[in-house]
Amino acid sequence: MSEKRLDLLYTEVEQELRASVRSLLEDKSPPEAVLARVEGDQVTDTALWKELAGIGVAGLPVAEELGGAGAGLRESAVVAEELGRCVAPVPFLGSAVLATTALLEAGAEAEGDIAALASGEAVAALAVPLATPPGAAFPEAVRAEDGALSGTVTGVVDAVTADVLVVPAVGPDGPGLYVVEAAAARVSPVVSLDLTRPLAEVAFTASAARRVASGEAAGRALRRALTAGAALLSAEQLGVAEWALETTVAYAKTRHQFGRPIGSFQAVKHRLADLWVAVSQARAVVRGAASAAAAARQDPGDAEAAREAELNAALAQAFVSGVAVKAAEEAVQLHGGIGFTWEHPAHLYLKRAKSDAIALGTADRHRLALARLVDLPAAEVG
Amino acid sequence: MTTAPAGASLDAPALRRRVAALVETHDPATTDQREFLAARFDAGLAWVHFPEGEGGLGAPRSLQAVVDQEFERLGFVPTGREGLVIGLGMAAPTILAFGTPEQRARYLKPLYTGEEVWCQLFSEPGAGSDLAALGTRAVRDGDTWVVNGQKVWTSLAHRAHFAILVTRTDPDVPKHKGMTYFICDMSADGVEVRPLRQLTGEAEFNEVYLTDVRIPDSQRLGAEGEGWRVAQTTLMNERVAIGGHPEPREGGLIAVAAHIWRTRPELRTPGLHDALLRLWVEAEAARLTKERLRQQLAVGQPGPEGSAAKFAFSRLNQEISGLELELLGEEGMLYDDWTFRRPEGVSLAARSPGFHYLRSKGNSIEGGTSEILRNIIAERVLGLPGEIRVDKDVAWKDLPK
């Protein structure tokens, strides 16, 4: 089995980007502020998103001539890690990753829509259920007829604050990818498990739409957007896991019971050592997924690069989802009573981790995707 | 030896030129391996970070990978080196760090060429994870030391010419003090090696009985009473052996399980499918972690992930080999060979799945148990408080045994 050697380290440029994103987030959106925010009217922090966009975060992998920063998905992954560390309520996943990638992969017809997203002036959402795995069949919930869309999509991430919707829909001449002004649809917020990431139901009723890709190209654009999304989501999950581990280790050093710090008990320290090993492994897997995704984006015609991107994204989701959930669960448990309270931010991370484990396909679905990609076929039970 | 000034001026291209110059005068295709390795040692290309004249050039350690890769590219990869792991990986760095110039001159070269095999006399029946509890006594008698005790789990003792040996020289001080480290001639009177049969049926390891073994003081490595510090150097080198070569995807034991799955469709069930996929994912995660560590070392930024690699590897091997047996069903109830024998090395590929399963149980015990490795990660990497120590200030002779 051949595979290109992936660069699994962080470059200096990436570390500088990390430092500036982290300092902005620590200043503007510490966990306590997020905790206060989730009970307000608007969870999404649009002011913070504008500031992040100001340092290039919204359009990192978008070429400069299209209004972006001209970086790559490796850099985006570093940003995703930092956003995960803060469970930041900004539309990075929905707008900068899913919708922007779908438009970039759609081709020339969609180029005009990208600059506003890359600058953070406008927010977009990809109108599919967030639980959709990259290998899913082209969705048929929305029908296209005479340049207008009708139908309902549930569980759409970042639709609540979106100005523009990127919609996969099926018409008489097959699948297509459409752009719709959010004002032309009905967006109804739902109560989501992840308090920091608003989901919505989006209903179209003969909503005016513009087609940006059709046929196979539409299917490919959607699939690549979900694949890139899965790779970058794993980076966010790594950030969640890192916060949970670091916070819990710090707590275990200061919390005393039976006259000793709880971190001196083997029952606690062995669990934290196991978690550290898992997080270290997750970091390597996440870097692999980001590098493979970046390589595929750089050379869209390279089928082998596309396959490696799919494989590494599936691997990352199959592995890192579990690590992030485990880390968040251990954070709640090892914080004891305080970990079960609303006032401690651990539950925000637990909710994000568990929700992320379902987003863009559960680990089980990604294992089945791997089974296909690496030729380990399912059992045929007679 | 034709060499330009070494040291700080060395970089990757300069080392490649030195490799080329050596291959020019010693064609690997026609030169005897031991002779070639001797020439490589003399050229300072054995361990580039060792001093000149002692197998190295005083170059940065990270450049060793450049040299190894260059020799490999030119088609020279030494073979049959499995029996040298203790010497190369543990004795050599310890002799370099603590040996006298005479000791370094005497031992490093034959150790490198494979002329002399080494073993390690550390563990004892009562001192495994708690190595500092060891009780093999060394008593000074003029210019020699008289050693009595028993060591265990000694791989290669039956083939070794020399051993690195840790002893108790002062029982009246706490256990980490009062230890002294020696180089022991395995052919000396009073050294008796007995095979130790393990649960696989074979004997990779030995028990070594030391009865009035006389070791000259010139064979002491490091100061009297400093044996623990010297042993720490040895042990630190035991776990950093991450190779310079990238591993392919689906290498190692997962390849065996995947091969069975692909070629034996009649054995497939949905539950085994999921179990196999989970382990495939774990194996790939472990591979990428090792690859990331390798890349870090190559740019001179070693991370603490090295301390986790062995730990993760042992767990994975145990789980995959367990699945392998279940996957084979009826055939998993068979074993290849219970004959009591002495293997040359641990070759999993040549043995049955039952052997894989049983041998892998040793992976989480040898070279530091998983429990000890967890403590090390928790305390040294995460900075969690240490274990409560009840033996810290007690003289070794007063400890319960």
Automatic annotation (TrEMBL), chain A:
InterPro entries linked: AcylCo_DH-like_C, AcylCo_DH/oxidase_C, AcylCoA_DH/ox_N, AcylCoA_DH/ox_N_sf, AcylCoA_DH/oxidase_NM_dom_sf
Keyword terms: FAD, Flavoprotein, Oxidoreductase
Top-rank lineage group of the source organism: Bacteria
MF terms in GO: acyl-CoA dehydrogenase activity; flavin adenine dinucleotide binding
The protein's required cofactors: FAD
PANTHER family for the chain: ACYL-COA DEHYDROGENASE, ACYL-COA DEHYDROGENASE FADE28
Acyl-CoA dehydrogenase/oxidase N-terminal domain span: 11-110
Name recorded for this polypeptide: Acyl-CoA dehydrogenase
TrEMBL record, chain B:
InterPro entries assigned: Acyl-CoA_Oxase/DH_mid-dom, Acyl-CoA_Oxase/DH_mid-dom_sf, AcylCo_DH-like_C, AcylCo_DH/oxidase_C, AcylCoA_DH/ox_N, AcylCoA_DH/ox_N_sf, AcylCoA_DH/oxidase_NM_dom_sf, Mycobact_Acyl-CoA_DH
Record keyword Oxidoreductase present: yes
Acyl-CoA oxidase/dehydrogenase middle domain sequence ranges: 119-213
KW Oxidoreductase (keyword) present: yes
Cofactor: FAD
UniProt GO MF annotations: flavin adenine dinucleotide binding; oxidoreductase activity, acting on the CH-CH group of donors
Annotated Acyl-CoA dehydrogenase/oxidase C-terminal domain residues: 225-382
Keywords on record: FAD, Flavoprotein, Oxidoreductase
Domain Acyl-CoA dehydrogenase/oxidase N-terminal residues, every copy: 16-115
Family the entry assigns: Belongs to the acyl-CoA dehydrogenase family.
Protein's recorded name: Alkylation response protein AidB-like acyl-CoA dehydrogenase
